[in-house]
Specification:
Layout: H1 10-16, H2 18-31, H3 33-36, E1 42-43, H4 44-51, H5 55-67, E2 71-74, E3 77-80, H6 82-87, H7 97-111, H8 114-120, H9 134-139, H10 142-166, E4 174-178, H11 184-192, E5 197-202, H12 207-216, E6 223-227, E7 240-244, H13 252-265, E8 271-276, H14 287-299, H15 308-318, E9 322-327, E10 333-338
Parallel strand pairs: 4-5, 4-7, 5-6, 7-8
Antiparallel strand pairs: 1-3, 2-3, 8-10, 9-10
Helix pairs in contact: 2-7, 7-10, 10-11
Bound molecules: S-adenosylmethionine.
């Protein structure tokens, strides 16, 4: 037990003011700090000029990024770290900044109203002022659409690679990714398993961006787009159906409806793979999964995240014979149900 005299407020203060560091990184991405440093180190004047920064905050801003481990400084020269050089340079294949650009543009202001969300149970995004829901408002604007779909690829890249490695794909020939966005998962699956063919079942507006990404990865002959809505249409048939970050967007009845539709679309022995940041069964450890669920409170009328045990129970109720929860990478895990 910690005695009272050894207690310090450090952890509380660090968490309470955590948004300082978070917003410093988000502004750096918005300004393009890491992209400007892609071709090599720059000194403070060169970097400030490229980013059009006022001198007052520039040195503190860059040095704060150094102290947060997001930049390195050699004498007068600032350069990317190995991580920021790989993941935060716009236009690079591994770019995950789309997710963080969206966090900066939308989530950061919306999370300012978390208290109100907790009191009312109502979303705090565009819907609050009579606007459309998450997908309608993001998808109505071509720039936001591209940003969102790219963000999904970045967010799911680690999980996609782990799913390619950790499931027995050799026993299956076809896969439909429901709500597959830009195609991040399907591309990883097909690059790793040359026998697989895949389709993305998503809203029609996603089609051209998916096809562009499939072509950029040389997979146009093995990947196709199937336009539709999982609320109006049955799910397309395949040996394996995948759903990444889909169920958490919707309420319990809608979740169950999607699992029922997946069951209907699979053959005997077919597999459903549900993946996201599953909350640990004890609901104590996976802070990212729990905070993601609060993000669903902010962003959707009824969405919430859930544990592997919850999902296994819903799958069993839909008719799946066996279910298995498999950790993927970081906070992500998948639930595999076999029909
Ligand atoms: C949160 S994203 C998940 C993207 C991807 N599966 C991943 O894990 O990175 C949700 C996806 O569901 C799609 N979606 C939303 N409503 C849909 C609907 N009614 N029918 C089909 N897809 C839908 C969106 O277009 C988007 O691609």
């Amino acid at each position: 037990m910690t005695s009272e005299s050894t207690l310090t407020p450090d952890r509380i203060m660090q968490l309470g003011l955590g948004f300082w560091g978070s917003k410093t990184l988000l502004s750096a991405i918005e300004l393009g700090v890491f992209s400007e440093l892609a071709d090599g180190a720059l000194n403070i004047d060169e970097l400030s000029k490229k980013l059009r920064l006022h001198p007052r905050g520039a040195r503190d801003f860059f040095d704060a990024l150094v102290s947060l481990g997001m930049l390195e400084r050699d004498g007068e020269l600032y350069r990317n770290t190995a991580e920021t050089g790989q993941f935060l340079v716009r236009g690079k294949l591994g770019y995950i900044g789309g997710m963080l650009e969206m966090a900066n543009e939308r989530l950061y202001p919306f999370w300012g109203s978390l208290t109100e969300a907790l009191r009312t149970g109502l979303p705090q995004n565009e819907m609050k002022t009579g606007g459309a829901g998450l997908f309608e408002s993001v998808y109505g604007d071509p720039v936001r659409l591209r940003l969102f779909l790219g963000a999904m690829t970045g967010l799911s890249m680690g999980a996609s690679q782990a799913i390619a490695a950790k499931f027995n794909w050799k026993d299956y020939q076809t896969v439909v990714d429901v709500g597959g966005a830009q195609g991040g998962l399907l591309v990883q699956l097909c690059l790793t398993h040359p026998h697989l063919r895949g389709s993305n079942f998503d809203l029609p507006v996603v089609g051209p961006i998916f096809e562009e990404y499939a072509a950029a990865n040389g997979l146009s002959d093995r990947l196709s787009f199937l336009p539709g809505s999982f609320f109006e249409d049955p799910l397309p048939a395949a040996d394996v159906i995948t759903m990444g970050h889909i169920l958490h967007d919707w309420d319990l009845d809608q979740k169950r409806m999607l699992l029922d539709k997946a069951y209907q679309a699979l053959p005997e022995g077919g597999a459903l793979i549900v993946f996201e940041s599953l909350i640990d069964d004890e609901r104590r450890q996976n802070a990212f999964g729990l905070l993601m669920s609060l993000n669903m409170l902010i962003e959707t009328p009824g969405g919430f995240d859930y544990t592997g045990k919850d999902c296994s129970e819903w799958m069993a109720a839909a008719g799946f014979k066996t279910t298995n929860v498999v950790p993927l990478v970081g906070p992500d895990a998948m639930v595999v149900g076999i029909k």
